């Protein structure tokens, strides 16, 4: 094969694998991006805070079951093949996401609404547990060893790009209609769009061939007959699995979810930043930060995976408190001067899809730095709820984008090299199973529970920064384990090989 055709081949593999993985992340994350609205739709409205935490917990359930998906689909991928396994996970994810958009609200079907959401969320988690390991393994087994970090880093961008696309679709939908229509039924559109994205991705992926390394093993009859036993019943391989989890993946998981999902949750739920503006802040920070996944993935080919990941965890751990304190101070009204002449009261009465009237009244206060605070009272079907919305000025918004962007850089440092790190840690015959489990425990359990745990800590203590103790402690523990027990070696080409234990 010529160098030109080889280059075309690897880029075709990357494009097809990344497109499908991006769509699966999009499917997975629109739930989290719409958590405030879903809390209103699928849970009782008697306690909005409890409903929001319940929604975050349902969101987290999808992460908790990811390790089980890793076991089920990892075993299938090591026995049958990488290609057909992640085709199956794609279809399960897309079907579950579309179905969430069809579920009637709690007001319509009662307790069956959260039960159905939970079941579909479980299906999403299982599918994603099988997707990532397959895509990362598939790309890595096509890539030359000395460029593995660079090529697999394109898969690493898909999680952030999936979140970015989900935010973009949600914002476009929201801006195309009134807030009332969006809250009533428009939020379902991003879920429905999933079916078209999945169909396109399936068409692209079905044309792929099996990974050359796996095909060679299969033709020689050397594929694993029992990947689970070889991965976790073998003492030496189990040691590598535990090292991958506690020395890399769990720290990477909490840094990833702090810098992206908890940042959004903090803006919306703690700082009360208005829905559109909070999503724009995250989306712009992600847009500028995403290329650094590729930069640090490529850099890891030259200086090693461990060095970059450990430094990323350390800097994140010592930076989170000052960063979030700086974010929180931007909405501290005690330090702002109100422009009393601009005080006003806004009101509206609108019908929903059932013909019921919703009455909304907002007391609007404006401050000298262009911050606008709306204290909103909503009455619907005889029930009254209150909430606050804050919209910051342009200068403050740019500052918040910068603070989130810094967090995204930490994410790229720990996440960019980790696919290559995990692939290189395990033999080809059991790679899909062995790498998927620690990755999805680190991300699904330690990372996925972060928004719910952090939000509950803030609610219980009243301290806006209390939730950060969780990711900071996990990142430090993981960094210490990684620094002590992971020892990388290099070849004359300068790329990292399998770590020594």
Automatic annotation (TrEMBL):
Known Pfam families for this protein? Sugar_tr
Nucleus among keywords: no
Domain of life, per the record? Bacteria
One GO molecular function term of this record is: transmembrane transporter activity
The membrane-topology field of this record reads: Multi-pass membrane protein
Alphabetically list the UniProt keywords: Cell membrane, Membrane, Transmembrane, Transmembrane helix, Transport
Q: Where are the transmembrane segments?
A: 12-38, 50-73, 85-103, 109-129, 150-173, 185-204, 240-263, 275-296, 308-327, 397-425, 437-458, 464-486
What subcellular compartments does it reside in?
Cell membrane
Listed under GO cellular component are: plasma membrane
Task: Using the record's annotation, list all stretches that form the Major facilitator superfamily (MFS) profile domain.
Answer: 13-490
The record's listing under InterPro entries reads: MFS_dom, MFS_sugar_transport-like, MFS_trans_sf
The record's PANTHER family line, in alphabetical order, gives: MAJOR FACILITATOR SUPERFAMILY TRANSPORTER, SHIKIMATE TRANSPORTER
Specify the protein name: MFS transporter
Question: Which organism encodes this protein?
Answer: Chitinophaga barathri
